[in-house]
Amino acid sequence: MSDAMQETGAVLEARKAYNETLRIKADQTRATWFPITIMILLIALPLLQFTGNYNYLLHMVLLTASYVALASSWNILGGFAGYISLGHNVFFCIGGYFAGMLVARYGWSGIALAPLAGLVAALFGYVIGLITLRVRGPSFIISSIALVMIARLLFDHWKFVGGANGVTLPPTELSVQWAKLPYYYAMLFIAAFTVWCSYKIKHSKFGLGLRALSKDEIKAEAAGIDTRFYKVTAFALSAFFVGMVGAVWGEYLTYIRPSIFLVILIAAYMVLMCILGGKGTIAGPVIGAILLTAFNEFFVATMGASELNILGTGVIMAVCLMFFPHGIVGSLARKGRLPRILNWD
Amino acid sequence: MEQIIQVAVLGIGLGGVFALMGAGLSLVFGVMRIVNLAHPSLIIGGAYLAYWGFRIYGIDPLIMLPVCALVLAATGVLFYKVFFERDAKSATYSEMTVLLTFAIAMIVEGALGAAFSNTQRVTSPSYATDAFFIGNVFIPKGQLYAGITSIVIIGLLAAFLKFSRLGYAIRATTQNREAAALLGVNVNMVGLMSFAIGIGLAGAAGALTSFVFSFFPAKHWEWVAVLMSLVVMGGMGSILGTVVAAFSLSIVAAFVGTWIGSTWSTMTFFLALFLVLLFRPQGLFGEKPELV
After folding, report:
1. Which of B22, B66, B115, B147 could form a disulfide with B242 if both were Cys (CB 3.0 to 4.6 A apart)?
2. ipTM (interface pTM)
3. Is the dihedral of CA A213, A219, A225, A231 positive or negative?
């Protein structure tokens, strides 16, 4: 080994040690106990079923968890890499249909199939990303909308998967009291896993590369980042988690059809949750998902009509974009007012 | 042979309407760098105006057309003042405005849906279901009139951009915003005017649409991808490119619809979009590749 190489090695060692001290310091100020406590509470929540029927509560938590997973995985591409996709529900659909068809034909378990469904969605994401990620900004967003339209046309007319009517899946054999539990835990686990992964990604070299290319892709390329590989991988990764959610969601509803997965409102929700909470932060999508579920329940309970729901969603989105473009977590962090329990970055 | 001419005629008729829809979109993008996803929902708004004008007062949609254009242009000014008249210098401006127009599209769709419900409507003046015959070629009057009106309007737009003072300013701003501002063009005013004109064109297209297609508030999602693919294919911001793309793709789509099946004809536009992204990301008439 030459001297020069040894020297570089020493510099790298020193850098590593310095980073380690930074990490420890950050860890000491982070309130890791908060998400863990919430998780434990949510895991224990189904115990309530012994005392009565809390299926509505469980359903709301399940729904929120699925939104958390969807928003967090959208955040990997939209928040970290800065590529705004309005067509991520395509992967939701692919995951749902892949697992759903195997459930319907062979009676396999959708929950067990979820990782595989995620992989299939990621594979599609990789191939689609190779084409659509060639352009950035407006053209990319447009191509993502076109993707939804293509998928909708295909799934509406594909006889094998039942066309527009979809496929009915066998209902669970558990009693009403316990029927939701497997899906509840599966979704909770997927949500927690997605948030944890997005944390890990943000703090890896890969995540750093993504954030660099979101600021200025040409400079990032010049700095030696393989931007093409990075963004396509980010696309595939975010498709992976969305596909997993789709697999569990389809089996939970006991039917799959294009109008569940491939409506523009779902894509809008993914974007809205991230913007509401704070794009590019870890806690943002979680906060956004909780708020959006609450808004939705409120709208449906007070106004009912789905047109007003669309109107309300649009108004909230416009107000957020115009006045809080950094979202709740992002704005608070910029002012240095972010409570410690929400600082998950 | 006759069948080929027949299909081509139908394609050209639709192409005119799509060209008019796309021209406004392209103009707004060229000057303001706003990808207006709300454009199709505003077209639906114009269509409703023409529809109610016909239903309540019996006014022909072709006569309602200038009214629709003016009302929508006024709406455009309002939207511009409320939503877009802010600092356009931010790096993520064009991405943020895409999301903002997405939200506006939802607001317009929700408002129209709440007001008029989601039933399918179509304006039915006598010519909408009538047709000419030249030999055995059948030319539906509705599409013919709509196509001719669109071509006339696009011609007027082209003349306006080519010869008027404001047209010069608009073209200058499209080419280079900073340089235009340096030479004394009031770029904010130009932005406002071109936004109003673009949305006014949406209103005009809406009046034509109201008797060519049946429509309902959620229909605009079907068009948004079609129109956007025209704009991307033409080269973002090139009105000529958009018009060329509209006519060529509509004709291809008409053939696909006849020979393969009408459900697949819209697929033509989306596949064309992906092919363009693959092989020529800057579009047919686009100048600089944004990022390849």
Report:
1. B22
2. 0.84
3. positive
